[in-house]
Amino acid sequence: MSEIVRVATKAMRMMLGEQDDPELILLSFPGSSGARVSLFRHARTNSLYAVKCVAQSRVSLMDEIGRRNALTPYLPDHLPQVLWCQVLDGFEVMISECKGIHSLHHLIINSNVPHSRLLGVWKDFIEALLRMWQGSEHQFNEALCPRFFPARLGRIEQGIRNATVGKTKLSECWDMPVVVNGSEYQSIAKSFEAIAQVGKPKMGVVCHGDPQPSNIVVGTRYSWYCVDWEWAGPHQDWRMMLANLYGWWSTRCSVLSTDAVLRVSRNRLEIEHSSYVPTHLQPYQDIARSVASTMSAGFPSEETTNDVNRFLAALYFGEIRFLHMWGREAFAETMLAQAITTISGSYRGANAQSFRFPQQ
What we know:
Blueprint lengths: L2 H14 L6 E5 L8 E6 L6 E7 L6 H11 L10 E7 L2 E7 L4 E2 H7 L4 H21 L13 H13 L2 E2 L2 E2 L8 E3 L2 E3 L2 H8 L9 E3 L8 E3 L5 E3 L6 E4 L1 H15 L2 E2 L4 E5 L2 E5 L2 E2 L5 H14 L6 H18 L12 H12 L17
Parallel strand pairs: 9-17
Antiparallel strand pairs: 1-2, 2-3, 3-5, 4-5, 6-12, 7-8, 9-10, 11-14, 12-13, 15-18, 16-17
Helix pairs in contact: 4-8, 7-8, 7-9, 9-10
C-alpha cells in the first residue's frame, strides 16, 4: 500500500469513526501540484468519497476550501461538498463528496460514452463559466489574481531553462533562432520576452482558475461538478482562462503524425514535427473559441487575440515540464514548436495551434 493510500484510508476511518477500511476504487495520477486523489466506497452505504492528499503544496487545502467558496454563488449545483480537512502524518488531507468516478477528460479520451453527450457536458460547462464571468465583472487587480501571471511565467521560464529535450539542453540554445518545419522564428529568449508583454484586461472576473476537462467530474445523467479549486477566486483574467479552455485540447489530446526531431545545426535550433487534434475532438475546441466572441461583444480585437496567444504560448511552454507525468514525453518537441510559433503570431500550416478565427 502506498503512503498516500495509507494516509487516505486512515483519514476515512477517522471521519467515519469506524475501524473497517473503506473500499479503494481508484487512485488518480498526480497533478502538477503533486496532489493525489483516492476514491473510496463505503461498504454499508455505497456512498463515494474523494480524499485529496498533498504535501508542501503552494496552496494549502484550507485555502483551497476558502477559494471554493468564491465559486458557490455562481455554481451552487456544481461543487462537491467538503466533509473533512486535517493535517495527518505530514499530509494535508481533504475529504469531499465524490459525485462521479471519472473526469470529463477520461471519458473523452477513452470514448466511453457518445461524444454527443460529452460535448453537451462541455457546452453546459462553458455556458456556466460565461454566466459567471459576465455576472462577476469587477475592476481587475493583477496583484490579487490567484494565478499571478508574472510569477507563473517566471516559474515556466526557469523550468524551460532547466529542461532537456531529447539530448539537447535548452539553456545551451536559449538565444538561437528557432526553425520549425523549415520556417525561421525568434529564439526562446525573445519568445518569453514577447509573452511578458501581455496587456491587462478591461475587467476582472471570478473563475475556477484552471478550467479544463481534467477538473470536471461527470456524474449521473451527465451532471457535472468542478473539482480542484486551488486557483479559484476573483481578479481572474478571462483571456488566460480562455487560453486554458482552448489550448488544453492541443496539450493533452493532440496526436503525432510522425516522430518529432529536434537538433542544433548551424547555430540554429531546428524542430521538425507534425501533430493534430483529431477531427472528432475539434468541436470541443470550437465551443471554447466561441467564448471570445461573447466576451468581446462580437469579433475579438487583434489585441485580444494577441494576448490570448501570449497566454497560450505560456501554456504550451509550461506543459513541457509535466509531460513525463502523463507519459507524453514524445510531445516535448511539438509543445516547444507550438509555443514558439504561437507567440510569433504565425498561423503557418494547417496544424498550428494558435488562437484564431476561421476568417483570420
